[in-house]
Write a structure and sequence with these properties.
The complex is a heterodimer of chains A (306) and B (95). With 306 residues, chain A is of the alpha+beta class. Chain A has 9 helices and 16 strands. In chain A, the strands form 3 sheets. In chain A, strands 6, 7, 8, 9, 10, 14, 15 and 16 form an 8-stranded mixed sheet that branches. A 5-stranded mixed sheet of chain A has the order 1-2-3-4-5. The two termini of chain A are 37 Å apart. With 95 residues, chain B is an alpha+beta fold. The chains are: A alpha+beta (306), B alpha+beta (95). The interface between A and B is medium-sized, with 14 and 12 residues.
């Protein structure tokens, strides 16, 4: 069963009532919300995601709702994100409830999933081989990732490189991709057919809009992938395309320092990152033109898998 | 001067001429050049005099006896001592 098997009305009633169960890759969520505006936004964006069966374990009980017992329920309305009944963040304006919820779910994963090594990285897959894009905010990771998954690559994640310690394989978590500011129009021009939700202006991260991943990526969310290549991207205005190998020692440090829980996992993280770097080709990428970057990475994937 | 390694359970990764080393006792990851790495490696079998260690490092680096600058060697030893990866003892005390 997927969310789309529910009517919009059933979707809203579940959110407002016993909660709506949704599966994002390896995680099952129970979502509650008394905000009809949230339900209206979430329904089309979450439509292809699976609904786990009633017997499966819920990893996160989350809620996005108006604050209880507050004048804010009527004046300059607000929304609070909560995990297990606790609100870790200050309230958001009601108009930003949806991006707040998406950030909140990422926060749940980043702070509660230490059974996995979590790299701060986009991950896409082609021909059975995963390409990882560890990057800092503003480096164009999400934009590049969105372009790739609308060019024949499968999305594993735009934010989390989830590494299974047992075998070093990457677990998909194909959630919505939040594009920021100029990237929204860049992707609208690059792939007009991409499903992009409404823009939220004036959020804590500027203007944000969410891309729904291609349905194939969501359907294959239980299909792990082997890491094959690290690419450290950087969008630079008017830059020519530069795709160059980098030293593995440098790549190791960039991956380790970008990970969400490298320090938490101690020696295990060192060994996992070391094994990944040893088994992967490592490149830096500077680009300004998405078409050029996508073509170059396509060639690289052919080379890497050959 | 006797040099004594305190990092017996270090975990190593090695690419080109760069060594990435995990130190379980502090949960820290270090990046060392060849000189620094070979100082630690030469102490794996037990304490050595600084002179012997320097000679072993020169041999490992493929350079002539005495070609490793005394200041470079002293700096690497000081850095390893600061990280808690070795201790220095006067020979008379160590004996």
């Amino acid at each position: 069963m997927i969310i789309g098997d529910l009517s919009r009305r059933e979707f809203g009633e579940k959110l407002a009532g016993e909660g709506l169960r949704v599966q994002f890759g390896p995680f099952n969520l129970l979502i509650r919300s008394n905000l009809d505006s949230f339900a209206s936004l979430a329904y089309p964006l979450y439509e292809p995601y699976p609904v786990p069966d009633e017997t499966s374990i819920t990893d996160f009980h989350v809620r996005i709702a108006s604050p209880p017992h507050s004048l804010r329920r009527w004046i300059r309305k607000q929304a609070c994100f909560a995990l297990d009944g606790h609100s870790p963040f200050a309230p958001y304006t009601l108009a930003h409830a949806f991006p707040a919820f998406e950030w909140g779910v990422n926060w749940c994963v980043a702070t509660r999933s230490h059974h996995l090594l979590m790299l701060h990285s986009a991950v896409v897959e082609r021909n059975g081989h995963a390409m990882l894009f560890p990057a800092s905010p503003g480096d164009g990771k999400s934009t590049l990732c969105t372009a790739l998954v609308h060019s024949g690559w499968r999305l594993l994640s735009d934010e989390f490189g989830l590494v299974r310690p047992e075998d070093g394989r990457l677990l998909p978590m194909p959630r919505l991709i939040p594009l920021k500011n100029e990237s929204i129009e860049v992707i609208r021009r690059f792939r007009p057919e991409a499903y992009i939700g409404p823009s939220f202006h004036g959020t804590r991260k500027g203007t944000v809009a969410h891309v729904r991943p291609p349905v194939d990526s969501i359907r294959r969310a239980q299909e792990t992938a082997r890491p094959r290549c690290f690419v450290f991207p950087r969008w630079i205005a008017n830059s020519p395309l530069l795709l160059n190998p980098i030293a593995k020692s440098r790549a190791f440090l960039m991956v380790a320092t970008n990970a969400f829980n490298y320090e938490v996992l101690d020696e295990g993280a060192f060994r996992l990152v070391g094994a990944m770097i040893a088994g992967c080709d490592c490149y830096s990428l500077s680009y300004s033109d998405l078409d050029e970057a996508v073509a170059a990475l396509g060639e690289l994937s052919g080379f890497a898998s050959g | 001067m006797i040099l004594i390694s305190t990092g017996r359970s270090l975990i190593w990764q090695h690419w080109d001429d760069v060594f990435v080393v995990y130190q379980p006792s502090s949960a820290e990851t270090h990046v060392f050049n060849e000189t620094t790495a070979w100082i630690l490696r030469s102490l794996e079998q037990g304490p050595q005099t600084a002179r012997r260690v320097k000679e072993a490092v020169e041999l490992a680096l493929g350079i002539g006896n005495g070609d490793l600058g005394a200041n470079d060697f002293a700096f690497a030893v000081w850095r390893l001592e600061e990280l808690g990866l070795l201790v220095c003892r006067e020979e008379a005390v160590a004996a």
